[in-house]
Design a protein that fits this description.
- By secondary structure, the protein is of the alpha+beta class.
- The protein has 2 domains: about 50 residues, no CATH class; about 60 residues, no CATH class.
- The protein contains 5 helices and 6 strands.
Length: about 150
């Protein structure tokens, strides 16, 4: 590698032209000479600033849609709550714009606040195959039992 620009690109898994574009957007480099030198803390500050500009916090009635890249109020203002632990779980709903499933982690204490805004149906968490009382459909349990 002949300069830190290429080293930064390789470290981040991006093309070196992306780093050049960042310099045009305001990423501070040490000088205009060759090789182009970038101080690590300047790169970190620049990337945190970019991330902060794009961040869109969700309101209490919103769930972030990854496909639309924006917070959305669930379709029909309805969501399902699936417990994952005794104190927290996931809200699952449909995005009204693209129809994909959207998810939001929440704790049980905030669920009542959310239920005041959205219609939330509490569902049971899906059990694992080995936790079910009946055997799996594709197992040889019955054949072994008959022997």
């Amino acid at each position: 590698m002949n300069d830190e620009l290429e080293e930064a690109a390789k470290l981040l898994g991006i093309h070196k032209q992306t780093v050049r574009n960042w310099i045009k957007e305001g990423l501070q480099s040490c000088d205009n000479g060759k090789p182009t030198l970038i101080v690590g803390r300047h790169l970190v500050a620049f990337l945190k600033g970019r991330r902060g500009k794009r961040k869109k916090p969700c309101g209490p009635d919103e769930i972030y849609c990854v496909r639309c890249r924006t917070p959305r109020v669930p379709a029909g203002r309805m969501a399902d709550y699936r417990p994952l632990t005794p104190t927290s779980g996931n809200l699952e709903a449909l995005c009204p714009a693209c129809g994909s499933l959207i998810y939001r982690r929440t704790n049980l204490a905030r669920l009542e606040q959310i239920r005041a805004i959205l219609e939330v149906q509490i569902t049971q968490a899906t059990s694992h195959v080995d936790e079910r009382p009946e055997p799996s459909v594709i197992c040889d349990y019955e054949q072994e039992k008959e022997k």
